[in-house]
Amino acid sequence: MAALATSARPLRTRHGHRSGRPPAGVRKGERVRDYPQTSLRLPPEMKAKLYALSRVAGTPQWRLVSEALDCFFHDRTRAEQRQVISYLARKRRR
User: How far apart are CA 92 and CA 94, in angstroms?
Assistant: First the structure.
């Protein structure tokens, strides 16, 4: 029994850091795997472009899509932005 306890891998290194990848969410400490998933249908050339942009930029695909949505939102008129914000506020109240 004692041999099992000594052969177990420690959760933390001697410097107090956890082993493995750090959380990579938008905000500090968030884990991407905890984000809701969605599915997109893209034409093959757009999927290839998303993959290529991700590789060249060294950025995950989910982050590229997220940033593209932010850019699209900021390109809308003020009236359209208010409509989006109003819609989001209604969805949160449900």
Answer: 5
Residue 63 CA to residue 26 CA, distance in Å, equals 8
CA geometry: angle 71, 28, 16, nearest 5 deg? 150
Q: Tell me if 60 sits within 8 A of 24, measured CB to CB.
A: yes
- Domain ranges in the chain? 43-94
Q: Kindly compute the dihedral angle of the four CA atoms of residues 51, 70, 75, 94, in this order, to the nearest 10 degrees.
A: 130
Token pair for residue 20?
């493995």
Indicate whether this model's pTM tops 0.85: no
pLDDT over 90 at 83, yes or no: yes
What six digits make up the tokens of 50? 């998303």
pLDDT tens per residue across span 37-64: 889 999 999 999 999 999 999 999 999 9
- Give the Å distances, CA to CA, from 80 to 65, 68, 70, 87: 20, 17, 13, 11
